[in-house]
């Protein structure tokens, strides 16, 4: 994702650097749609993300394909000619392709103008208290069950309901600084979040009283949401292996009122079998897998900023080696992500819902991982749940069978950071029933051993 403007300039034969920057920024904003269109048109390989042939009959790299496709598909409707520099065979394959104008044009809304979302933390406060306090401080609630018009929010107003996330309030970006120091936020009653990052717990749907495993939990945003959902009779086991992040997780859970319903465990989630008793594993019915990822859904903003600021001036070979390294990094992340998801689908006999999420926009970390596991686990009773069927417009890439079942989120239509969610479900025969009364029993219970370095 390193942008080399000189190389791109030569490729596209664009005279003005500003025009080029604008083009690259547009490509970044519409990355999901462009990638999907190129895969569907047989230009990019769905699994590797690279051009399907390397014989000169298509642009040589993924980057060139994306930028040229952007130039071709997102140019003003009035221009009928093929833009200079676009490969004729690419133009041929994309003939007649239309990008969904809803997801491209609306993405003209700049990422830095994403609304400021805040989730009510029911562990510390009830919605009525939060609203009363906001009102006392001069904020005006706009009640609109459909979610209201985010773009017309004025400073000092907020949407009091969200169509997808319970307890989510939406403020205009202009109020970010005021909210950051507001006592409701500093006191923990309101959590500043991105809307998309609240989706995984909502898709997991643990009922009150459920036992939930949060495999990659720190710093605990989703753990807190899950703790509120399972209520006082439920339990959340929050696992993370990073020492610093684990400390932050524990600190936040205490500060935010999670109390006894969350148990923290510092270890590798792939080794949980060493730490949890079988009775405890039998009791877990809902699992969240939110593993480390490239974070590309969050960094699109800074990449775009970099592009607007002028970018780096590396040579063509630097750009190619950076692209190769990035490809390797994605492959290694995808391997780890698939291992954690595989373990969640294998090791917990009573598990009936497993949600997988990333804040990545790359199909390698998203649909490709989910598709691989969906294929391997179909004969073990696991199938994909169709998430938010009619209410969430942006779906997974249609080049993958699993795409329509999954959610993607982004700054365009959804007004969120880049995010991906999938959910596996299965009907269990109730093998966990015998363990109804088990506690989160740890095999290796000494704190010293739990905190050892792995
Ligand atoms: C994307 S972050 C999780 C964010 C978190 N779910 C939240 O909502 O705040 C991924 C986390 O996975 C942890 N992690 C990575 N590999 C792990 C492993 N093998 N076992 C447990 N945790 C791991 C990282 O330390 C990191 O904190």
Would you mind describing this structure in some detail?
- It holds the Pfam family Methyltr_RsmB-F.
- This is SAM_MT_RSMB_NOP domain-containing protein.
- Keywords: Methyltransferase, RNA-binding, S-adenosyl-L-methionine, Transferase.
- One of its GO terms (molecular function) is RNA binding.
- InterPro entries: MeTrfase_RsmB-F_NOP2_cat (IPR049560), MeTrfase_RsmB-F_NOP2_dom (IPR001678), NSUN5_7_fdxn-like (IPR049561), RCMT (IPR023267), SAM-dependent_MTases_sf (IPR029063).
- This protein has 3 domains: 103 residues, no CATH class; 78 residues, 2-Layer Sandwich (Alpha-Beta Plaits); 241 residues, 3-Layer(aba) Sandwich (Rossmann fold), CATH 3.40.50.
- α2 packs antiparallel against α14 and α15 runs parallel beside α16.
- Strands 6, 7, 8, 9, 10, 11, 12 and 13 form an 8-stranded mixed sheet that branches.
- The protein has 17 helices and 13 strands.
- With 454 residues, it is α/β, with parallel strands linked by helices.
- α11 links the parallel β6 and β7.
- It is globular.
- The protein binds S-adenosylmethionine.
- S-adenosylmethionine binds next to α11 and β7.
